[in-house]
Amino acid sequence: QSHIVTYKANVGVHTPVLTYESVRDFLLPAHYPAQSNALDLSLSNSPQRDKDATFWATELENLEIQFNEQLRPKFRRGEINHLSVFGFAPMPLLIKLGTLINDIHHAEIHQPVRDPKTWNLNDNSNVTQYNVIAPAEMRPLVALNISLSGTINNERITRVLGDTCSIYTITIDAPFNDFLKSKEQLSDFSIAIRKLMNQIKSKYNAQTPLQVFPAMPIATAIEFGRVWMPKADMHLVIYDENTANSGFFKAIEIQNG
Q: Are 12 and 27 in contact (CB under 8 A)?
């Protein structure tokens, strides 16, 4: 049996629809719903949009409160053996959700696949090479460019941080928004991003903030948060891109320690 966890937040002008009824069948046949409703961590009927600074503070506070109220007590009592996670929200919030779930808990992260339309990653042996591009020199600031669902040119990062930053990039040969099809691709990403964070930390230290610029599928965003270790990894400063704000801007911070 698996507990369904849903989390949604406004993306631009769009309000995602994500309900227990719309996702429960995607657990079968591997799992059955543990209860007849989802553990929904969403902020209901929020009028705020992701171009507004207040949106991020409100959503972040709500996500932490809902997780602490709905999930932590069940974990402590040993009532949850497995999670089925369905999310649709801006990347920084999905990364935060992943840090809350962490990799301690058994969970399957579902991905909305456009073609064929499903919320399930397949079991095929889809091989994706995750390429890492390291900076030529070490500078005071360090940034992580995640170019998976689209390509982020480094100029868009230096426009925000200035030229005194070293930029590490993880990408694939042809970034596009529906490349993620299989569980193996997600698992390989988890390994690759873990190794890359260790590589960056070996050059800097856990006290140096890592400036994160993500263009990635939903499941990889949650998985990125899951592999981040709060007691060992770098403080995260996560940016979001919005044309209403003329490009990337700082959305949320995730503290370590």
A: no
Burial classification of residue 191, based on how many CB atoms lie within 10 Å of its CB (0-12 exposed, 13-18 middle, 19 or more buried):
exposed
Q: Is 246 left (phi over 0), alpha (psi -120 to 50) or beta?
A: left
One-letter-per-residue 3-state SS of the chain: CEEEEEEECCECCECCCCCHHHHHHHHCCCCCECCCCCEECCCCCCCCCCCCHHHHHHHHHHHHHHHHHHCHHHHHCCCCCCEEEEEECCHHHHHHHHHHHCCCCCEEECCCECCCCECCCECCCCCCCCEEECCCCCCCEEEEEEECCCCCCHHHHHHHHCCCEEEEEEECCCCCCCCCCEHHHHHHHHHHHHHHHHHHHHHCCCCCCEEEEEECCHHHHHHHHHHCCCCCCCCEEEEEEEHHHCEEEEEEEECCC
For residue 189, give the nearest of 153, 152, 230, 148 by alpha carbon: 148
Question: How confident is the model over 204-249, as pLDDT tens digits?
Answer: 988 899 999 999 999 999 999 999 999 899 999 999 998 766 789 9
The Cα–Cα gap between 238 and 91 comes to 9
**Lowest mean pLDDT across 55-59, 95-99, 104-108, 251-255:** 104-108
Q: How many residues does the chain have?
A: 257
Q: Taking Cα atoms as reference points, which of 149, 170, 146, 167 lies closest to residue 158? A: 167
State how far the Cα of 150 lies from the Cα of 67, in Å rounded to an integer: 30
Alpha carbons 162 and 150: distance in angstroms, whole number: 22
DSSP bridge pairs for 239: 250
Burial of 235 (0-12, 13-18, 19+ CB in 10 A): middle
